[in-house]
Amino acid sequence: MASRTKRVLAASAIPTKRIEQAILLIRGEKVMLDVDLAELYGVPTKVLVQSLKRNAERFPPDFMFQLTADEFDNLRSQFVTSSWGGRRCPAYVLTELGTGYGVSRRIAELEVSGTCL
Fold it and tell me: For the chain, what is the domain count?
């Protein structure tokens, strides 16, 4: 089983620089936005957010939280977005603990299904 985990991790390696660029400091916590995590997992943001909402009890506040309207507006003002598209509600963010938990859950799901990325 350990060799399968190593194969899954090696096959799904993401450049460190890409991960570092996605880390933000919000509320004194190193976090990643749901949109960045979805991209790293290769799923639509909508799918990731639905999964987070369905499993909210597994993600306590020190694992995940939703940005306030002010935080969201501040963050949005720092990025160039189109006037016709984009998000309508504040993003979810996962802390270091939350992203680690999410990665371990994803690896476990891959092992159970026998899927290798």
Answer: 1
pLDDT digits (tens, 9 = 90+) for 18-28: 888 889 899 99
Domain that holds residue 23: 2-79+88-113
Residue 72: is it exposed, middle or buried by C-beta count within 10 angstroms (0-12/13-18/19+)? middle
> Residue 57 carries which side chain, given as an amino acid letter?
E
pTM recorded for the entire structure: 0.69
Q: Which residue in the block uniquely carries the two structure tokens 């939280």?
A: 65
Give the strands of the sheet with 23-26, arranged side by side.
23-26, 29-33, 92-95, 64-66
